[in-house]
Amino acid sequence: MSLLAITSPHMNKSNTRGVGFVMTQVILATVPGILAMTWFFGWGTLINIGFALLVALISEALVLKLRKRPVGFYLKDGSAIVTALLLALAIPPLAPWWLTLVGVAFAIIVAKHMYGGMGFNPFNPAMVAYALLLVSFPVDMTQWVLPETAPSFIGTFQHIFGLGVTFDGMTSATPLDAFKHSSNQTLDELFMNTPALMAETLVAWQTVSICFLIGGVYLLARRIYTWHAPVGMLGSLAVMALIFSLYDADTYAPLTFHLLTGATMLGAFFIITDPVTSATSTKGRFIFGIGVGILVYIIRAFGNYPDAVAFAVLLMNFAAPFIDQYSQPRTYGHRKARKGLPKKKD
After folding, report:
1. pLDDT, position 20
2. What gap in Å lies between CA 71 and CA 75, rounded to an integer?
């Protein structure tokens, strides 16, 4: 039997993992978090996701058509779906439909394609859109439904699409927002008297965070990305929270509060691990994650926004090229220069 001689490089197609495969795994990893959010916060999560996916696919197709790129080829990579999914998870379940429309369209058209499309955008598109929405529409972006008080599917659908049904009495601030804007109360009084900080509400947020953590562990097990960025972010955030809570427990939120409420776990495992907008070297990813964690705490504790994941990620996106510049591994085959080595003779 004759063998076919082929020059290197060689590749085993059965082990090939393209963009589509990675995006599919990311989507699967969000399922536990989506189910938990739906269980505690109602049908609005699923409705937002469905509408966001529709807007993303239409926006992506229109821009690809205008750019004279093959629509079907690029739609199949799943990047637009992941962007829409992550943004929809960050938007409150009872947010009006136009909020999702503006955010997703801006993420795809401006934050992604105006920089050249997939692989060329310097900033995470979902976080760019989230920051835009939070700055422009702060009230709509900070009113979350209280756990297990959401209306039926029909009622939620009518409220989101402005069909005459309102549920203002069911909405509340997030735990991070409630803690940030509290004053003249001890920590115990705050948790007893604030609806957004009562036990059942915190359990809901903590369960959602743990579900996203489970999804992140799944992605680590599948080797979709390495542990460096998530561990760097969670570790630095934990250290900052521990230091300040020990210094003044009544002013600064406890460690578990920072780790298991808000978008911490979603950010650690689904946002900062974006290979395009984060650092690329192993050491760089760890530094990138540390920077995000520190900025998240600083903005939460001393800034004007309660959940700072989006702003922290965007600021570190600025720094990613600089981090890569000074964290590149040495070239294979070259040893590090050491002091005291004899000079090479001519």
Report:
1. 87
2. 6
